[in-house]
Design goal:
Length: 413
């Protein structure tokens, strides 16, 4: 039996009532806390917690870690990343500084196709090594569950290669990992003038092979002008459903398309980006169980609009936030920065941003029964901060990490 008793917790945060698996709209402002607390981890889960004034007798028998007055949060749940990639793209960073837009760079053969060309020639081993290093960094920054997409393969072999790397990450890392098939990320050069051919390849070859090996949990498409139309996205999501894959899709990043409504029609677990948040999209989400996943560090890096988080929350939509870690639009996997940006740029309250990054992030990966809040029986993936004067200090101190210790499955990571 493995045990760890965390004592002297200044504030234990995220004590949502048992059975709370997602927070909608304005209820996201509620983040129940307990001052001056202890918490016991046993065999990887939270087995008890309480006030330091009532620390049970016999506690000296457990290995003890003092939180030294810091806050304890459930780990960040990062529900949207592309962290398997072959090479960085800082040359595009410089092009952006010189005035080129994301679309200009993509049209010039950069962007996703650039990453796909590099990934073709990179071995599974090398991809695993570089993605592992990124994920190690993310966990040290407080991330305790992650979703990872394919989408830099764009051929049957390379999409499968990426998903096998993600499977190996699932098998070797101690945190929950979800895999998403994003073959519909861009039209590969070979199909530049034959979109129908690539859609058929996704539906007839890639999807059955991926499903046959059980390599994906979800299906995604980049529903965007110049990428996949709403009609094409609709076909891909229908085909995914035949293989039991629920959608999590990229929509309304660069243009308004009606893709959110298509996602809702297909009962998407989440629709992600929404930098352009139109009223029709908000209305369709407010009557659905689909989560709106917002990616403010993508807006920061590309210098594009920020999603209308307040409008979504006022319409009772559940909002999650995630990094979108990828080499082109968001070369950062730091959820602490995302939480700060959610406050600074999405105008979310600290409580709303933290719920969006924990319980609702877990929900956007189908993991909120085991992660995203503090409760007996939940997985003991926790982060401990330095002593902070208040909860708001965490997002306020942007660009600096307050995370002092990360606990994964009840053990110090
Ligand atoms: N928008 C589409 N996909 C990624 C960017 C991919 C890339 O530029 O490599 C995103 O979520 O931002
Ligand atoms: Zn993305």
């Amino acid at each position: 039996m493995s045990e760890l008793l965390i004592t002297h917790i200044g504030t234990l945060t995220g004590l949502h009532p048992t059975g709370t698996t997602v927070l909608r709209g304005l209820s996201m402002a509620s983040l129940p806390q307990m001052e001056n607390a202890w918490l016991l981890c046993r065999d990887g889960v939270i087995s008890a917690y309480g006030s330091m004034e009532d620390l049970p007798g016999g506690h000296a028998a457990f290995p003890v870690l003092s939180a030294k007055g810091g806050f304890v949060f459930p780990c960040w749940c990062d529900s949207h990343t592309h962290l398997v990639f072959a090479a960085s793209r800082e040359e595009e960073f410089v092009m952006k500084i010189q005035g080129k837009s994301y679309e200009d760079i993509a049209a010039a053969g950069g962007g996703i196709l650039n990453s796909a060309a590099k990934l073709q020639d990179t071995s599974e081993e090398a991809l695993y090594e570089s993605a592992s290093a990124r994920l190690q960094d993310m966990i040290r920054q407080g991330t305790g569950a992650v979703e990872i997409k394919s989408g830099y393969g764009l051929t049957p072999d390379s999409e499968l290669k990426m998903l096998r790397v993600i499977r190996r990450i699932k098998e070797t890392f101690p945190i929950p990992v979800k895999a998403t098939l994003l073959a519909a990320h861009a039209y590969p050069l070979a199909f530049r003038n034959n979109h129908e051919g690539y859609i058929r390849q996704i539906i007839d070859e890639i999807l059955p092979a991926v499903a046959g090996e059980g390599l994906a949990d979800y299906i995604d498409a980049f529903c965007e002008q110049g990428f996949f139309s709403v009609g094409e996205t609709d076909r891909i999501l229908s085909a995914g459903a035949k293989h039991g894959l629920r959608p999590k899709i990229h929509v309304n990043q660069l243009s308004i398309s009606g893709g959110v409504q298509a996602g809702v029609k297909h009962k998407a677990l989440s629709v992600d980006h929404l930098e352009l948040t139109d009223l029709e999209a908000i209305n369709s989400l407010s009557n659905s169980s689909t989560i709106a996943t917002l990616l403010p560090s993508c807006s920061l890096y590309l210098d594009i609009p920020y999603a209308n988080a307040r409008g979504l929350m006022q319409a009772d939509v559940p909002v999650a936030i995630a990094t979108d870690y990828n080499p082109g639009s968001t070369p950062s996997g730091n959820m602490n920065l995302v939480v700060s940006l959610a406050c600074i740029k999405l105008k979310m309250l600290p409580e709303e941003a933290i719920n969006a990054a924990t319980l609702n992030g877990a929900a956007a990966m189908g993991l909120s029964e085991e992660l995203g809040s503090i409760g007996v029986g939940k997985r003991a993936n926790l982060l401990i901060t330095r002593p902070m004067p208040s909860l708001a200090y965490l997002p306020y101190s942007f660009g600096q990490s307050q995370v002092s210790t990360v606990i994964i499955n009840g053990k110090v990571f």
